């Protein structure tokens, strides 16, 4: 059986109050944090690699041709730029949880375009405990919470753990360095029963090295499929 994460299960007070667009302040009748107009302004991922969603490639990127990612598929809601990048930054650095709802809704919409045989188990990319302590919350988990709620999928907040902090990915520009940073950084719980299919949620996927390492850890304990759900996808050099 999956265990539910420690994130609150019920509605928070802020959930009821969030009837204004986080962006323009207009009344948001969708109840998803962004009014329709502002949501349409968020940039899509253009010409993604079909395997890793690297933007602007249009065909399999060189990296995927050299070595296929460990995850089975990737779904991205937005390109990491413009309003989408600002939403991520508001969530991460200003603890703006309304931004998590806006991103989570976009991700739930993107996930709905995929055919799912059965409900996957939602797992957020874990943060190292020191960062959790500093920030007080895990941005990916806040987004995952909304995706799970909207899709009515179960959440597992204990399957995957980050055991090494390492430097922030955004500071490791060189790709080899990124891979070294995340190698062995994740550990999945060994259980008699693990979900067959995990939907792995992250706020920003840049090279895919981090979600790749997490997918490897999940496969190692018997998870058969890992579909990455990225609220935003950054390109190289972003
Ligand atoms: Zn708006
Ligand atoms: Zn690729």
- State the end-to-end CA separation: 39 Å
H/E series, N to C?
Answer: HHHEHHEHHEHEEHE
Total separate domains: 1
Low-confidence stretches: 1-10
Mean pLDDT: 87
Number of strands: 6
Percent helix, as a range, is: 25-40%
CATH class: Alpha Beta
Percentage of β-strand residues? 5-15%
What characteristic shape results from the CA principal axes? Answer: globular
CATH architecture: 3-Layer(aba) Sandwich
The tally of helices reads: 9
How would you explain this protein's 3D organization?
The protein is of the alpha/beta class and 238 residues long. The chain has a single domain (44-233), classed as Rossmann fold. The chain is built from 9 helices and 6 strands. A 4-stranded parallel beta sheet has the order 1-6-5-2, with helices on both faces. A two-stranded antiparallel sheet has the order 3-4. β5, α9 (209-220) and β6 form a beta-alpha-beta unit. α4 crosses α5 and α5 packs across α7. It binds zinc ion (2 copies). One zinc ion binds at residues 21, 23-24, 26, 34-35, 37-38.
């Amino acid at each position: 059986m999956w265990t539910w994460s420690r994130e609150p299960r019920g509605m928070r007070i802020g959930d009821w109050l969030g009837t204004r667009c986080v962006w323009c302040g207009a009344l948001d009748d969708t109840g998803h944090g962004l009014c329709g107009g502002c949501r349409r302004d968020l940039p899509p991922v253009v010409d993604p690699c079909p395997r890793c969603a690297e933007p602007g490639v249009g065909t399999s990127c060189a990296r995927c041709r050299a070595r296929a990612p460990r995850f089975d598929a990737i779904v991205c809601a937005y390109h990491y730029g413009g309003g989408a990048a600002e939403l991520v930054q508001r969530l991460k650095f200003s603890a703006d949880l309304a931004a998590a709802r806006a991103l989570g809704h976009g991700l739930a919409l993107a996930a709905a375009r995929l055919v799912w045989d059965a409900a996957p188990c939602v797992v957020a990319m874990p943060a190292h405990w020191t960062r959790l302590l500093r920030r007080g919350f895990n941005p990916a988990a806040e987004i995952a919470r909304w995706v799970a709620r909207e899709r009515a999928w179960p959440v597992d907040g204990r399957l995957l753990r980050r055991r090494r902090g390492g430097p922030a990915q955004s500071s490791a520009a060189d790709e080899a360095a990124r891979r070294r940073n995340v190698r062995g950084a994740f550990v999945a719980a060994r259980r008699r029963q693990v979900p067959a299919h995990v939907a792995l949620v992250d706020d920003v996927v840049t090279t895919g090295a981090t979600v790749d390492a997490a997918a490897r850890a999940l496969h190692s304990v018997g998870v058969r499929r890992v579909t990455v759900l990225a609220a935003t996808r950054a390109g190289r050099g972003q």
